[in-house]
Amino acid sequence: MATTEELLAEILRWQRAAALPEVRKTIESALTARTADATKKQRTAYEMCDGTKPGSEIAAALGVSNQSISNWTRRWRELGIAHETGDRRIRHLVSLESLGVPLEVESEN
């Protein structure tokens, strides 16, 4: 007979498999901006939100304001695709790479 821990791990695997298509849609929608460059910046910021960097470091690396990072991360938390860690840093739910979502999108020119 399986242990409680084994059963919970199995349930988690099934939950992830069932939820990933919807999570991917939510992330793609949340990380698509008016221009290809803005989309790349948002997606790069999301990827950088791995819980190890403060928002100010991410903002500086991307050349955007701290307020932009704050606005983006607040929206991501509201959508459930990111959360705040114990030390008040933001961690994404899942990496774009693991979902097959590219950082860059083609321009609509």
Tag the structure with descriptive keywords.
109 residues, mainly alpha, 5 helices
What does this structure look like?
The protein has helices at 4-30, 36-48, 55-62, 66-79, 96-99, and strands at residues 82-84, 90-92. The mean pLDDT is 94. It has five helices and two strands, in the order H-H-H-H-E-E-H. The chain is globular. With 109 residues, the chain is mainly alpha-helical. Strands 1-2 form a two-stranded antiparallel ribbon.
Quick overview:
The protein is mainly α and 109 residues long. The protein is 61% helix and 6% strand. The longest helix is centred in the N-terminal third of the chain and has 27 residues, at 4-30.
Structure annotation, total helices? 5
* Low-confidence region ranges: none
Total number of strands: 2
Order of helices and strands: HHHHEEH
**Terminal residue distance:** 60 Å
The biggest beta sheet is recorded as: 2 strands, antiparallel
Radius of gyration: 16 Å
Helical residues, percent: 55-70%
Strand share of the residues?
A: 5-15%
Indicate the mean pLDDT: 94
Question: What structural class do helix, strand and pairing data support?
Answer: mainly alpha
Strand order of the largest sheet: 1-2
Q: Per the principal axes of the C-alpha atoms, what is the gross shape?
A: globular
